[in-house]
Write a structure and sequence with these properties.
The complex is a heterodimer of chains A (422) and B (220).
Chain A lengths: L5 H11 L2 H9 L11 H6 L11 H11 L1 H8 L8 H13 L7 H4 L6 H14 L5 H12 L8 H15 L12 E3 L3 H5 L3 H13 L3 E2 L10 H5 L2 H17 L4 E4 L3 H15 L6 E4 H10 L13 E4 L13 H9 L3 E2 L24 H7 L1 H10 L3 E4 L2 H13 L6 E3 H7 L7
Parallel strand pairs in A: 1-2, 1-3, 3-4, 5-6, 5-7, 7-8
Chain B lengths: L1 H34 L14 H11 L5 H6 L1 H19 L2 H11 L8 H24 L1 H6 L2 H21 L6 H18 L7 H18 L5
The chains are: A alpha/beta (422), B mainly alpha (220).
């Protein structure tokens, strides 16, 4: 990668300028309502976390270079320039104090999609060299090793062997012509291998032909989190090449939020063309199998339980009802949180915040929002569908001394599968 | 007396023409500046259609999302009252309709002047309260810069001078009427160069927001 400079950062900001961004900046009247939608503001009370304020550097570029009045003002030296100092100051707001959850975009009265702009603003920050070390490291590992946590295929192969030995199931690898190619997140490989076993069980029962690619199994995309289209494109491309090589019809995005955004929504635009395959989220696929009668479960969970909507899968991904349909299949006492579906509150660790050690204290503070939501419900179990949310929630619960199992939805379904006769 | 009539004649004549010209040309330039940037094609497979979702958001964003209303009740209620009050005073006061008819040749029924008067009084009080809120609410005060206060002033002045003119509270009448028209001209001249532009661009912003979310299967 070429060296990061302010000049490169400015060029990256300019590349991000488009009609939506210009219409959003033109429309903001500083009403402050986005602050109340942001967990970093509600839990700290610090106005600097007001979502639209986090965009001041990008706003300056827009005003000074994309409006007649702004150009006149700069000509007479009346505008404040974008400097290294400014970006350095704003780095913590845009990376530590935003999870790209997109809740602010749902409440802005003039309709500003603020998180859309934060995602774009990060392109300028990273190009200018202002991004947190933690995410930089993860991106470097993703590009050079193949996964942000440094997981190489042998590590996955070892887990596969483990799961196969434990369960007596087969996990297909590099099978050409399978219908589905499953992706995993490093977090699932290392911390939640139950997910892999759950997939194998469910697909066997439902008669789904599937495979894992040894060349592209990693679903997460640090490029999306850090805001570098170059890195994001490289990582998406690996998946596309592998999927097209194995001639699969579908690629399955795992229980990971931003992976879905990366492969489902940003991916085709990063590589500049539609895919030859379709992308489905694992919950969409399970819900499809359910409605086709190919997913048979027995027994129920009778705990009072709730579902944490991962922002990127639900609000930003459009997978709203499948988790509920699936939960209602196996749970008798499922309740939704007060703010749920597209208005859910983030766990506090999305958008690269969980990979950013510097942000930990703030993230723990922001978790109080989730804690409040859970306290209101008085539930015994929390179900979610994102390995990152799951880890962040487990950490948060521990921090606030709350005892509550956090379960992945796919595993929960797998546990209730009707066992095959043989 | 004659100077105030001269003043009134100027603001009604050349003054108004200049302001109207700057307003129209300025707004067109600003809208063009936004739209000309366009956006790249989206190659991801859509889950829903953009058009319907965008148009729906354009309408639904007028009502606040429930949680936001609870968290910012003053901003929401105050915002409604003064926006509606301002529009009623502008478009439903009979002398204003007469003026528009004389320029554009279109007219619509107005409402009783004493009703407009009451609405205008409420609007003025609400605008003062909104300013107070901007100066005291931690988030609004933090965000606000000179432009936020300038736009408040140029929005407030036409309401105030209109009220003073209606009640003939300044003598001579041509002077206060002239001041009222001048304040409107100030609003028109500053409009394209400030965030007052949101009165037009919110339509584009809401549409993009709704369309982009709708494409992903979410009604925003």
């Amino acid at each position: 990668m070429s060296e990061a400079t302010l000049e490169r950062g400015m060029n990256a900001f300019r590349e991000q300028m488009n009609a939506p961004v210009a219409s959003f900046f033109s429309s903001c009247v500083n009403c402050g309502m986005c602050a109340e939608a942001c967990l970093f503001y509600t839990e700290t009370g610090d106005p600097k976390y007001t979502p639209i304020h986090k965009l001041e550097p990008l706003r300056r570029v827009w005003e000074q270079e994309y409006t007649l009045w702004g150009r006149l003002k700069s000509m007479f030296g009346l505008s404040k320039p974008v400097t290294d100092e400014l970006l350095e100051e704003w780095e913590t707001l845009i990376y530590d104090g935003c999870t790209l959850c997109g809740r602010c975009s749902m409440v802005c009265p003039v309709g500003n999609d603020i998180s859309y702009m934060i995602r774009r603003a990060r392109e300028g920050f990273v190009a200018a060299g202002y991004a947190p070390e933690g995410i930089k490291g993860a991106s470097r590992r993703a590009v050079t090793i193949g996964s942000p946590m440094g997981v190489k295929f042998p590590a996955l192969a070892a887990q596969i062997k483990h799961v196969e030995a434990d369960s007596g199931l087969t996990i297909p690898v590099d099978v050409e012509g399978a219908d589905y190619m499953a992706l995993l997140s490093s977090m699932e490989i290392m911390n939640f291998p139950e997910y892999l076993e759950a997939l194998a069980k469910i697909f066997k029962q439902a008669g789904v032909t599937w495979t894992i690619s040894s060349e592209a199994f990693e679903a997460t995309n640090s490029g999306i989190q850090i805001g570098s289209s170059d890195i994001a494109r490289e990582l998406v491309n690996r998946v596309v090449v592998a999927a097209e090589k194995l001639k699969v019809k579908y690629v399955i995005s795992p229980e990971c939020g931003h992976a879905y955004t990366a492969i489902r929504w940003e991916g085709p635009n990063l590589i500049g063309r539609p895919y030859d395959f379709k992308v489905v989220h694992i919950l969409e696929l399970l819900d499809e199998l359910r409605s086709a009668g190919r997913l048979k479960t027995e027994g129920t969970e009778d705990d009072r339980l709730t579902f944490h909507d991962p922002c990127q899968i639900v609000r930003k991904g459009g997978v709203l009802e499948p988790p509920r349909n699936l939960l209602n299949m196996v749970a008798t006492n499922f309740v939704d949180m007060n703010d749920s579906r597209e208005m859910n509150w983030c766990c506090g660790g999305g958008g690269g915040v969980s990979a950013n050690e510097r942000a930990e204290e703030l993230r723990i503070k922001a978790f109080k929002r989730k804690k409040t939501q859970l306290d209101e419900l008085n539930v015994e179990t929390l179900v979610t569908a994102c390995a990152n949310c799951r880890l962040i929630i487990e950490e948060g619960l521990e921090e606030y001394r709350m005892e509550m199992p956090v379960v992945g939805l796919t595993e929960m379904i797998a546990e209730h599968l009707v066992e095959d006769e043989k | 007396m004659s100077t105030s009539i001269d003043f009134l004649l100027w603001v009604r004549g050349p003054g108004f023409d200049i302001a109207l010209f700057i307003f129209i040309v300025g707004v067109l330039i600003r809208l063009l500046e936004v739209l000309i940037l366009g956006r790249k094609p989206d190659y991801s497979e859509p889950r829903g259609a953009e058009l319907g979702a965008g148009l729906l958001t354009l309408v639904t964003r007028t009502a606040p999302e429930g949680g936001s209303f609870k968290r910012s009740p003053f901003t929401v209620v105050g915002g409604y009252i003064w926006h509606i009050g301002f529009l009623v005073s502008l478009f439903l006061f009979v002398p204003h309709i007469e003026l528009i008819d004389s320029v554009l040749g279109i007219r619509w029924p107005g409402i009783a002047s004493n009703l407009v008067d009451a609405i205008a009084a409420v609007t003025i009080v609400t605008l003062v309260a909104m300013l107070f809120s901007r100066l005291t609410h931690p988030v609004k005060r933090f965000l606000s810069g000179p432009e936020d206060y300038l736009t408040w002033v140029v929005t407030f002045l036409p309401m105030l001078t209109g009220y003073l003119a209606y009640h003939r509270m300044i003598d001579p009448y041509p002077l206060v009427l002239g001041l009222h028209i001048l304040s409107v001209e100030l609003l028109m001249v500053l409009f394209p160069f400030t965030k007052l532009m949101h009165a037009f661009t919110f339509i584009i912003a809401r549409w993009y927001n709704g369309a982009m979310a709708g494409r992903r299967g979410v009604q925003s």
